[in-house]
Amino acid sequence: MSTINESLIRDVVSEVLGRLGGSPAPKTSVPAPVPAQPSCSCNGQAHSSASPGLRGKFGVFQDANEACAAAHEAFLQLQHKGVAARRKIEEIVKTFADKHAAEWGQLELEETRIGRLDHKIEKLQIIRLVPGVDWLRPDGHSGDHGITLEEYTPFGVVGAVTPSTHSIPTLSGNVVNIAAAGNAMVFNPHPAAAHCAVTAVRAYNQAIYRETGIENVVCIIEQPTLDSFSAMCKHEAVRLLCVTGGPGVVAAAMQTGKRAICAGPGNPPVYVDDTACMKRAAKGIIAGASYDNNLLCIGEKEVFALETIADKLMAEMERNGAVRLSSSQLDALTKSAFTFQSGEGGGCPHASVNRFFIGKDPGVLAQAAGVNLPSGTQLLFAETDAQHPFVVEEQMMPFLPIVRVKSIEEGVARSLEAEHGYKHTSIIHSHDVDAMTTMGRALDTTLFIKNGPCMAGLGLGGEGYLSYSIATPTGEGVTNPKTFCRVRRCVMVDNLRIY
Ligand code: NAD
Fold first, then answer.
1. Which of 165, 255, 468 for a ligand 1 pocket mutation test, highest count of atoms within 8 Å of Cβ?
2. How many angstroms is it from 243 CA to the middle of ligand 1?
3. Phi, psi for residue 272 in degrees, rounded to 5
4. Would you write out the chain's pLDDT as a tens digit for each of its 499 residues?
5. What atom in ligand 1 is closest to the CA of residue 189?
6. 291 CA distance to ligand 1 middle (Å)
């Protein structure tokens, strides 16, 4: 629809309402549309439909309240521009994430200094697997009393928090889902991964503005703090929260009083029994636990192996490129990778992960363990007991503890302890359907993967779609556009059923 037609329609509606004695149509309720702009050197100042103070920012704000106000304006414009604009945003984000994967992957690695470049790049290339506008199909009911449609409609502005482990990928996947549902959004990113997130947001908004005329669909706080998080959550335009991170941010989001979709922490256990193919199990475990140096929340973090096959499994892991540490090497690594505070562990010192080692290359861990690695080593492992800090803590390092168990019952019980009730992800390698069913029921996790690496649970080598925000404590599961919708019912009584 052109600008002229829209203003003409507004004037006619105003006139008609005026003659009927009603109030004239509110001219300012929906900001006047701006035609798509060619690239221009004015930095948005001349053509933007954003309010004067919010122009030329392309989504990047210092102040949380300003960001929320800008996102609210953008939401109203997006509502007006319809599904075509949402589709365009989805296309822009998917195309840009792929096109800039190498550059942005490098940028994120340089800023955060955690993970692996090849996987940082891949995590952006696969944004195309995130579901968008086509996911939203209304549900219809038709019968003697007419027809009813249940529509998936937006909330308005969504306030989002992203982790340091996958900053641009989480942000990009969230943008596809949230905008596909017709919402605008504000991000309070992790402070240690904010610069790369800001770069992506600016690029997305510039392209979205060029193509749709809307300037601030995706807003971000350039220097995020706990105060900016609070201000974002409190802003009246923010109707829904989506936080991705550890226990702290989940607890904080749940205390805001707003509805929160929480993608929380995990500590995924793996159980391997004597019916599994050891080679396939070893390869799957290495692929999953070494992905981005084990930064994935779904990544294999500890293995419980039936004692009859534990040696075979470890031999197969060595044959497939993982390096086994001796007990003295494990002790040396443990002393570096954890700090032990006395008095917090019921008499025993409590282990906390030493952040320096999170997401570091196997070579860095090997140095701490005092071992030389063959080049190309992706993963270290060692045999431990079930109470070892590498089992208990969500450690996010390319090291895997292997624990022997006597039975499926013990394997499941140990897995449950290690998972801490996060209900996030669990994995089994087995061809025994009873064992699969027993573990699936007992662990009660959001993702349960059988005979593959963790990534299979997000559509990489398994069926299904991708999201980097898996809502675990709040139960929405692998987030998708419907997660960010209000379901509204539209009922036509006794009519329009056409047969
Ligand atoms: P983190 O918890 O340190 O930070 C996550 C985000 O929350 C950051 O933006 C941080 O600034 C913010 N934050 C932290 N504490 C906060 C508080 N009290 N109030 C407000 N904001 C707060 O996590 P991280 O190291 O960046 O990421 C790793 C964690 O995230 C792991 O626990 C991992 O399992 C989890 N994670 C979960 C998913 C999922 O889909 N469920 C995806 C990725 C990461």
1. 165
2. 8
3. -125, 125
4. 334 444 444 444 444 334 433 333 333 333 333 444 444 554 544 566 788 878 889 999 999 999 999 999 999 999 999 999 999 999 999 999 999 999 999 999 999 999 999 999 999 999 999 999 999 999 999 999 999 999 999 999 999 999 999 999 999 999 999 999 999 999 999 999 999 999 999 999 999 999 999 999 999 999 999 999 999 999 999 999 999 999 999 999 999 999 999 999 999 999 999 999 999 999 999 999 999 999 999 999 999 999 999 999 999 999 999 999 999 999 999 999 999 887 655 566 789 999 999 999 999 999 999 999 999 999 999 999 999 999 999 999 999 999 999 999 999 999 999 999 999 999 999 999 999 999 999 999 999 999 999 999 999 999 999 999 999 999 999 999 999 999 999 999 999 999 8
5. 9
6. 18
User: What is the enclosing helix (H) or strand (E) of 70?
Assistant: helix 64-99
CA 244 to ligand 1 centroid distance, Å: 5
Rounded to the nearest 5 degrees, what angle is found at the Cα of 16, between the Cα atoms of 12 and 20? Answer: 170
Alpha-carbon span 51 to 70, nearest angstrom? 8
What is the spatial distance between Cα 390 and Cα 405, in angstroms, rounded to a whole number?
17
Radius of gyration of the chain (CA): 26
Structure token pair of residue 498: 């056409």
| Nearest Cα residue to atom 25 of ligand 1 | 164
**427: its two tokens:** 């994995």
Residue indicated by tokens 């599994």: 276
Q: How far is CA 417 from the centre of its chain?
A: 25
Distance between Cα 430 and ligand 1 center (Å): 32
Pocket, ligand 1, Cβ cutoff 6 A: 161-165, 189-191, 226, 229, 244-246, 248-249, 252, 263-266, 297, 394, 468-470, 472
What 3-state class would DSSP assign to 232? helix
Contact (CB, 8 A) for 144 and 492: no
Query: Nearest C-alpha to atom 11 of ligand 1 is from which residue?
Result: 190
- Of ligand 1's listed atoms, the one at least distance from the Cα of 265 is 34
Residue 418 falls in which region: left (phi positive, over 0), alpha (psi -120 to 50) or beta: alpha
- Please tell me the distance from the alpha carbon of residue 351 to that of residue 348, in angstroms, as a whole number: 9
Interatomic CA distance for residues 389 and 414, integer angstroms: 14
Mutate to test the pocket of ligand 1, among 297, 354, 424, 480 (most ligand atoms within 8 A of CB): 297
Nearest ligand 1 atom, CA 470: 40
| Total-model pTM | 0.90
**Nearest Cα residue to 396 out of 290, 273, 322:** 290
Residue nearest to atom 17 of ligand 1 (CA): 249
Burial class of residue 320 in the structure, from the number of CB atoms within 10 Å of its CB (0-12 exposed, 13-18 middle, 19+ buried): middle
